[in-house]
Amino acid sequence: MALPPGVSQSQFDDALNELRRIVGRDYVFTENDLDSYLDPFSPTNKENHRPSGAVAPANVEEVQAIMRVANEYSVPMAPISTGKNLAYGGASPPMGGTMVLDLKRMNRILEVNESDGYALVEPGVSYFDLYNYLQENNIKLWIDCPSPGWGSILGNTVDRGVGYTPYGDHLLMQCGMEVVLADGDLVRTGMGAASNNKAWQLFKYGFGPYLDGMFTQSNYGVVTKLGVWLMPEPPGYSPYMVTFEREEDLHQVIEIIRPLRINNIIPNAAVLCNDLLDLAITKTRSEIYTGNGPIPDSVHRRENAEHRIGRWNFYGAVYGPPPIMDANLSVLRDAFAAVPGSRFYMADERAGEPTAQYRFESMRGKPHMTEFSVLNWRGSGGGHVDFAPVSPVRGADATTQYELVRDDAHRAGFDYMGEFIVGWRDMHHIYFLIFTTTDEEERKRATEHYLRITELAAAQGYTAYRTHIAFMSEVAKLFDFNDHSLGRLHKRIKDAMDPNGILAPGKSGIWPDRYDQNA
Amino acid sequence: MNRIKRVNTLGGLLLTLVLGIVTGCSSAPSLAQDGPSQASINRGQETYDLWCGTCHAAGEGYAGTQMLTLTRAEGLGVMKDNDTLTDAYIELVVRKGLGMMPVFRKTEITDAQLNDLLAYLGSDE
Questions:
Q1: Gyration radius of chain B over CA positions
Q2: Residue B77 Cα, gap to closest chain A Cα (Å)
Q3: DSSP at A434
Q4: Looking at beta carbons, which residues of chain B come within 8 Å of A278?
Q5: What is the arrangement of strands in the sheet containing A221-229, beginning at the earlier edge strand?
Q6: What was the pLDDT predicted at B77?
């Protein structure tokens, strides 16, 4: 059994007994049960992040009691919501030997307010759960979900994930949270801090310092409730797809997208993805090319022609009353027509195509698992880790990033499969590094490639907004303004809020003194 | 489509036979009494719909079906239709994962829900 670092066997056994008294014997997991908390897609050795145990509370009071026990026995505890943050570490803790605080049992949808357009959820509520609830109760609100949709609404939001509808910036649409602190104290943020308030899920900022962001991508507290705004079902919804023939069209396409997005003609977190990402929904690499090395242009052209896709494919949507949708579609058609060889398709022209269909469904908040198919690209045993830098919405920036990642991927023996998700002012560039999890040499190559592009991209100003637990300290070090002053501030906050250093050591490269790997 | 039943079900049948002989029970044990209840099958279908069908349904765009179609003999790509899968194998894959299929923890699919799922997969529904 892996022990928490610095904790003796007897100390740990006593802690486990206390935890069993809190949640019941059935919900404290040790030994063989811990295999299910390992990251199946780890690019490094997944055993590096094996937890020492797991405990699954049913409610906030149990979470508070668990944190008090964790402090008393100095047992580090890392919360997960549904544990489906695959490509970023899944259910595993950042530091091996940490216990996992598995919040999946806390899966209540506490409130859905149709007239004000929000929901209040616990960590264990997945996008599928809330979507099904809204459908079953005929509530005319849409969720915004990432791809795939089996993750936690709360968990994805506090990891600052994104979706594909106009509500695609998940943290922007978050309103109010409840947090259990490292010492077991219970806090509600925003207007929820006033016990008789009426606007906890309506007004984000509350009174005094606005703290919600502190509990995202951090190890400062355990978020146990989260408010999220939901989009009212619009009177009309019309998705579309635009294909672009040439690899070099990327520059011009992004330049066209920027003013359209800023002016809300593209109102949603629309996606521009490359052809291989689309092809991988229904094909494996060996089905289109059996050679070694990068896939030749001739094969790209052949497959693109057969599947009526482009080297780049843009998926967007218009929403609202039909006259407004028609007017916006007219602007969009004219704008994209400036790219030679581009083709504009409405949804009915792509009927029955799984790739287009799941994209169209994503942009109206319908969760799916379709994108999981890309993991079959290299055959059985597929996994992935995502490289996710952000940048301005500029053609030059997109091209620089794309070429940097593509060229290094090809040198390392991988394919470029990626997309640009266009936000309010930025682009999230998501590169799907698909590799074979059962091939140790390939995993090592994938890790080296990932770390190399992380550094190379950061050197040109494209730093990641999110990363895998194996790489968090490396990415944290890239934030180097004023001799890493942000990292020093993170540490000062950590020391104040969690003096015993028991909450998720290493998350986002924030280490308590007792485990400080930066010291 | 009836799936190969787990060993403990066979053990239950043997125990019933032994007890029948010892007590002088004149009626033969009914195999139907060892099968899962309809309630269990129904619950299993709910678990299947929530956790499995999104990757293992028939058709294009289902990741699990795609991989099984590539790696298994013809006609065995759709999990519900594949009667060569034993309960023990399904249990192992659910708890340990296989390839790109991640594991399902006991907080996601409890042991009881897993038993119901096996009942559903082994049924003709």
A1: 17
A2: 14
A3: E
A4: none
A5: A109-113, A118-121, A221-229, A174-181, A186-188
A6: 85
| CB-based contact A281 B103, cutoff 8 Å | no
Instruction: Look up residue A445 and give its amino acid.
Output: R
Question: Looking at the partner chain, which of A102, A148, A382 has a beta carbon nearest the beta carbon of B99?
Answer: A382
Specify the pLDDT at position A89: 95
Q: What letter does residue B98 receive in the DSSP assignment?
A: B
Which tens digit of pLDDT belongs to each residue from A286-310?
A: 999 999 999 999 999 999 999 999 9
pLDDT tens-place string over residues B101-111 = 889 999 999 99
Instruction: State how far the alpha carbon of A127 is from the alpha carbons of A112, A152, A156, A360, in Å.
Output: 14, 6, 10, 17
Cα dist. A351→A240, A264, A342, A464 in Å? 11, 26, 19, 36
pLDDT in tens, B1-39: 334 443 333 333 333 333 333 333 333 333 345 788 999
Which residues, other chains included, contact A422 with Cβ-Cβ below 8 Å and sequence gap of 6+? Answer: A257, A258, A261, A266, A269, A270, A271, A272, A393
pTM beyond cutoff 0.95: no
Partner-chain contact B54 A369, CB within 8 Å: yes
**What would the mean pLDDT of A42-71 be, rounded to a whole number?**
97
Residue among A447, A302, A274 at smallest CA distance from A374 = A274
| Residues in chain A within 8 Å Cβ distance of B103 | 35-36, 38, 40
Distance of residue A383 Cα from the nearest chain B Cα, in angstroms: 6
What are residue A152's phi and psi, to 5 degrees?
-85, 135
> CB distance A376–B107 less than 8 Å?
no
Residues A145-168: tens digit of each pLDDT: 999 999 999 999 999 999 999 999
Question: CB within 8 A of A516, min separation 6: which ones?
Answer: none
Three-class SS state of A416 = coil
pLDDT in tens, A427-482: 999 999 999 999 999 999 999 999 999 999 999 999 999 999 999 999 999 999 99
How close is the nearest chain B Cα to the Cα of A368, in Å? 7
Closest Cβ–Cβ partner in A90, A128, A281 for B61: A281
